[in-house]
Amino acid sequence: MKRNWLYFILFLVLAVVAYFTIIRKNLGSYSKKDTAFAVEDTTQISKIVLSNLKGETIQLDQKNNIWVLNEKYTPRPDAISNLMRTLNQLEVKVPVAKSMHNNVVKGIAGKRTKVEIFNKKGEKTKGFYIGEYRDALNGNFLLMEGSEHTFVVNIPGFSGSISTVFFTDETDWKSENIFAYNPEDIIQLDITYPTLKDSSFSIIKKEDGKYDVASIKKHTTSANPEIISFYLKQFKLLNAEYFINEPEKKDSILTTVPACVIMVTDKNKITTALKIYYRPITYRTKTQYTSDDKPLQFDLDKYYGIFNNDNDLAIIQNFVFGKLLVGPDYFYRQRPAGVNTLNEVLIKK
Fold first, then answer.
1. Is 50 exceeded by the pLDDT of residue 173?
2. Nearest 10 degrees: Cα torsion 309, 313, 169, 165
3. How far is the C-alpha of 64 from the C-alpha of 179, rounded, in Å?
4. How many Å apart are CA 189 and CA 267, to the nearest integer?
5. pLDDT grade for 12, boundaries at 50, 70 and 90
6. Domain spans, the chain
């Protein structure tokens, strides 16, 4: 009995090996336009368009070596990197058997993602459709635009669906990054508290490369340049926690006065702004009472943040941004000792 099972398993293995050997040899009978899914030189790509039957479209444009998402957002660098790596490594595994072809095409027609690639001249170099993934084949069904032949395609050495890098949800593509500056590139930084004028200040770069702190408060000594430098370094990488995809909520928040506005202007005189708003207490809020048991109205740990020319609403953490929310006195100390101005006001109130 055991011997019969061994013969059966051996037969299956040999059948699979023979099938793939014959199929791989037959790939040469297909034209390159049917099988050339991979992009040999991804540096020549200027635009990628991903779309599906739900009406979702992702357009990625490369302008001056910077990728732009749907003409107004910054895409996640890791998502771009994964997409480029996948496009470069796509490899046809086997053609789809004739007996399966019609069903595979129907499946692609009913549920698919279309990928279109454009070169630096704006010419469309290729377009193809990504169908479902099959565990047994370890690959996705792909169909080149205008072709009559479908193929199983994967990345050598990779186990899983390649469709995971061709997603079409705009929110998932957007970068959570708000500020990313080399300190020396900042020529002006403005921290404005609309209801706390005395706490507002500006850091301005002078012609000699040094910085001044300007505010309505008068100080008898000069600002500490080491603390100014330390503060500017905080703007190297500041991200939101997550996006809130609720346009009506964002529009409602914009009708109110922000608790703080941060504006950074770089050497190219491009300004990035973040508007910070208090976030009401929720059942998940960690700190709901002051030290003397008085209830808090707003969250001390998280705020609403609106940025990207008022296009994006997100949750931002006090852990990340609280160190920026100081007053002008901060720069006249011997060493950094920040007090979160917004939270201090909430606790006092």
1. yes
2. 80
3. 19
4. 12
5. low
6. 31-173, 177-348
